[in-house]
Structure formats: C-alpha cells, structure tokens
Amino acid sequence: MSLQVEKLEKNMAKLTVEVPAEQFVEAIGHAYKKNKNRFNVPGFRKGKVPQAMIEKMYGSEVFYEDAANEVIGQTYGDAAKESGLDIVCRPSIDLVQIEKGKNFIYTAEVAVKPEVTLGQYKGVEVEKANAEVTDEDVEKELKRAQEQNSRLVTVDDRPVADGDQVVIDFDGYVDGKRFDGGKSEDYPLTIGSHTFIDTFEDQLIGKNLGEECEVNVTFPAEYHAAELAGKPAVFKVKIKEIKYKELPELNDEFAGEVSEFETLDEYKADIRKKLTESKEKQAATENENRVVEAVVKNATMEIPEAMIDSQLDNMVSEYARNMQNHGISLEQYMQYTGMTIDKLKEQMRPQAVKRIETRLVLEAVVKAENIQVTDEKVDEEIGKMAAAYKMEPEKLKGYMGEAEIANMKEDLAVQEAVDFLVAEAKLA
Q1: Among the four 39, 126, 318, 393, which has the fewest Cβ within 10 Å?
Q2: For residue 41, what pLDDT band results from cuts at 50, 70 and 90?
Q3: What pTM was estimated for this model as a whole?
Q4: Which of 253, 241, 242 is nearest to 146 (CA)?
C-alpha cells in the first residue's frame, strides 16, 4: 500500500491510497465465494458456477463492489494512521481506479482537527450565578408539597370553575364532519391546564354538572394534522363530573405528616437547606458554563463542515435513542410532528457547533497548561463507575479496551481544564 496526503482548505485533507493489484484480485476471489450461491446458470449446480463463468455472463465488474469494500476496510485504518493526521470525521470515499490486473486506487477526503488559537483564558471576568434562596422559593416548594398532598372533592352544587378537574365526553366536527381523534368519553381534563386547543377549557367555565354544550375553537395554523390546521371546529361536550382540589392546611400537623419534622418551622428550615444545596450546585454548573463560554468566545478556530456534519449525525442518533426510551421511534416522531431529518439537523446545528468549539478549546487549554491525568485518577473514576454498576473495579477495567481508557483520560483532563479556568476566573 502506498499513500499520498494532500492538505486542502478549511482543515480538510485528501488521502490517496494505492493498493497492489494482487490484493484486489484476492478480494474479488473472496467476493465470489461470498456470493456464488446467488447465481443460477444452466448446467451447473447452485454454488458450483466457476468464477470465470459468472464474470463472463454478468460482466467482470460483478464482484467489484464487495471487493472494493473489503480492500478499503483493510487499508483505510492503516492509511489514516500513517497519514499522521488527527482525523475527526468519517471519510468520504471516491474510487479512482478499479480494474482487474491494475492497482486499486481510491481517495478518502477527511476533516482534520482544527488548530485553536487561544485568546485570554486565564482570569476571564463573568457574572457570578445567583445561589440565593428567597422566602418566595421556600413558599413555592411548600406550596408544591401542599398540592401533592391535596385531595379531590366532588362538586354537585356549583358550575365548573378555573382549576377544577372535570370528566367530559366530547365529539368534534370540522366542516360538519367528524374527524380522527375528535371523539372521546370519560376524558379527564384540568381547567386552565391548556391541554386542549384555543379557548376550549375557558368555554367550559360556568357549565353545570350534566350539562351539554357546544364549544367553538380554531385549530392552530401550525397544527400537526395538516387537514385540520387553521380550521374552525365545533365540539359537542357533556360535563359528567366536577371535582376540585382541596389543599391541606399548612400547620405543624401537616409538617408531621409529610416530613420527619414536628413543626412547620422546622420543615421550612429543611426546605431552605435543601434548596440552598441544590441552588449552589446549579450555580456552580452555571459558573462553569459562563467561564467556558467566555474562553471559547476569546478563541479562534476554523471548523470544517464535515466535522459539524459528523457531530450532527451523532446528535440525531442520540436524539433517536432518547425518543426510543420514551416508547416512540424517530420515524414515528417525524411523522407526527411533520419534522424531517434535515429540519432537525438545522435546529441542532448551533448546539453542534458549540459542542465542537467547547471541546476543542478545552483540549487546547489542556495542552497549553500541560494538564496531566494520572493512572490513579483514572482508577478512581473506574472505581466510581464500578460502584454504580455494582462490579469489581478490576473486572470493569478488564472489559474496557485501551482506546476506551484513553478516552476516559482525555475526558478527565478536559474536566480538570474546566476546574482550572473557573479557579482562575474573576466571578463578580
């Protein structure tokens, strides 16, 4: 194998790889063995047709695709390593010469990790995140606990009011015709939750138990079902049940029931303590983000498009996994929302660029400050992971390859760079 490396603009490079003809011929032989059972030729049993006969009948190129894939798979990794480039995306492959008896030649266009020029990164000035817990915060948390411990009381002596929980039957019509999803029985609805479109819930206020009424609404112009978007609709609604939320009184008795404390004051003090701990953690994270953003803003780099495309592919895959965890496939989500992969990538692009810039800058800080991560630090991190998985650290380490451990070391170095930047920053 021979290799030529050509540097292109905007942190791109082209690798030209030339593979001996013999290796390509050998790959063709492998492709024949892999696919020979697919061919039926009169006079030959299935799988027994000679390679030469198949090539004569179907053309000499019949096995080229599989052979080319094999040769590229065998050689690209070595070529990338030999190039000495820090490649950060999947290659774009083009075939230059593919012919039996001649050397196999292909090119691989790749993105190369950009050089980062750091601006000011020590002592950057940022506004310090607020970690103060107010009385209002405590009261809000207390109100949440009150809501959680409320009970529903059936109403039969007044009409529907804002905040009530009702049970309704409804039957929807557009242009005088029923539409899919427009009918339901015994549907639970909280008035004021804005679960339904337009003013649907507002129009139920003042209606009595057992009353039947018509509700007139208009579907939003951007409604996911195109056939309903922007159209007026009429719903026939029956009020079958009215309930309201009865809140417990905030006193010592309440505190004793919902917490380990005997008095409301003690319970409120504990709420404040926990909120303070939470806010301080949030503030620390926010301070990190602000400092890193300032350092990134001061740096310069030129990110190749291929690197962004690769990051977007990873983010879409991550998004798809998250959707799957919620019981819906990405395809179903796309169909339901009218979204496309291209639109999704367009939305994700700013975040993709930010992720790349942040990582590159932090890696540059690691290099500039010569931040080293010890093996002991790596072992400590593996120990934490092992505890989470309820495994022996050495056993987990045995499952991890050298590349995975090296990546962990890089990630730990990047986090140390973040800690360094925050320690050096001026938080006002």
Answers
A1: 318
A2: confident
A3: 0.73
A4: 253
